[in-house]
Amino acid sequence: MPETAGNVRIRLDNVSLCYRLAKQRIPSIKEYAIHWMKGALAYEKLWALRDVDLTVREGETVGIVGRNGAGKSTLLKVISRVLKPSKGTIEVRGMVSPILELGTGFDHELTGLENIYLNALLLGRTRREIQEKLEEIVDFSGLGDFIRSPIRNYSSGMLARLGFSVATAWLPEILILDEILTVGDAAFTEKCEAKMRTFHDAGITILVVSHSEKVVRDTCTRCVWLDAGRLRADGETGEVLDLYLHGGHEPSERAAGRLPQTS
Amino acid sequence: MQDVYRYRDLVRALVARELKVRYRRSAIGFLWTMLQPLLTMLVLQLVFSQIFAVRLTYGNYPIFALAGILFWNFFSQSIVASMNSLRGNAQLLQKLPVPKAVFPLATVISGVVNLVFALVPLLAILLITGHPIRPALLFLPISIFLVALFTLGAGLLLSPMAVFFSDVVELIGVLLMLLMYLTPVIYPIEIVPERIRWVVRYNPIRSILEVFRDPIYQGEVPPLPHLAVCVAIAALAFALGAWVFRKSSDRIPFYV
């Protein structure tokens, strides 16, 4: 790969991330003290990412595939700076706009309109920036009059529209999509894909996590396969998908080795 | 800290939401903020004058107690709410790169708004009981700022611990009760036996309390040395809280 440092957006160098799961879920101070005195503070170490090296450049749309628990979402959280890696270094250049799962950062008692504000504020926008884009966001969501009713009445497709509209209202340098393109109806999916193409043309880096082979095949120029926290393959979408779909079925380390019995 | 500044509009929205939830729940929700301290004041007046039969040489006990209660409610409720604020927003903290300090900050700010609302009935009682209204009351904004800074420091210090250990909130609840009795909130410091009075005297919360109560009760701006001590205590509490919060903030999303 040619090293044109100027257009590297994301660089992960030997990144590992470990969740320390306490044997008792959230220990109390009392238990902590007792265990500490016994010298028996036991934690389950779960390495969600192991030695991941990844470089993503401007304009790439990268699909991330892997089975449940392979570390896909953890990887996205590390890139969007929610979680700090336990080892290794990470460098992210530019504004990251994460759209994570349905309804994260939504308040179900508030209306769609109020939620646009709330969600955009949570993404680090100011009130003024939001006001400037409000009309555009409402238009793109296509929610019409529903925008004035509380979102607890929304379907999951409608929530996804709202979330996508908010997060893509501003051109970020890096856009993160975690399982979102599959929930809207056909018309909206098409709209999203069109928007993603504009993003792609504008040189924005996009990371997509999806279990839908079609979404990955249609939108991504490159694909990485995560298995038990390791990068198993990285390359052209078609090749990696074939490898993942046809060669990846031996039991993964984590599925077999997780939560060993303790005496 | 610049991060928090960038998210200032989010803080404002969180404060507005917290107040809305509080006052929407019941038609008299707003009234309760004012009534609750008043009723507590009446109870204390009864207990101290009738049951303990303390000779309050102390002019206007209701004003003394009410000002104390308003301070204490703000302080203790803000701490407990800050501790719950990180847990309550666990979902967000695990998914979005929001500066975590915005949650305790918004909690303390909405506490300040409630405190200001609660000053209204206090003023009414001042007028009704014929307590002299002095210009020292104009010093209150500065008092409230110091009280808030101190409380925010305590909230920042304790809120990460509530994430790491499940029982801290209960423990702090008990500690706060103990602290309340070690602070002359509802009793004058003179009734404390001489040999243990130093505990109350050197309790930093007492200093902070008095910077708030003196302008109301004594009608005097706190003397400069006392004020200087209070500024130092509040600044130190805030610096310590901010430092601890920052140190632990990377670990928070792993535990909420």
Task: Give a verbal description of the structure.
The complex is a heterodimer of chains A (263) and B (256). By secondary structure, chain A is α/β, with parallel strands linked by helices. Chain A has two domains: 1-18 and 49-95 and 172-263, P-loop containing nucleotide triphosphate hydrolases (Rossmann fold); 105-162, no CATH class. Chain A is 36% helix and 26% strand. In chain A, strands 5-6-7-3-8-9 form a six-stranded mixed β-sheet, sandwiched between helices. In chain A, α4 (127-141) packs across α5 (156-167). The radius of gyration of chain A is 20 Å and the shape is globular. Chain B has one domain (2-255). Chain B has helices spanning 2-6, 8-24, 29-51, 61-88, 90-93, 102-128, 140-164, 168-181, 197-201, 204-217, 224-249, 252-255. In chain B, 37% of the residues are buried.
Q: Key features?
A:
heterodimer, A: 263 residues, alpha/beta, Rossmann fold, 2 domains, six-stranded mixed sheet, three-stranded antiparallel sheet, 9 helices, 26% strand, globular, disordered N terminus, disordered C terminus, B: 256 residues, mainly alpha
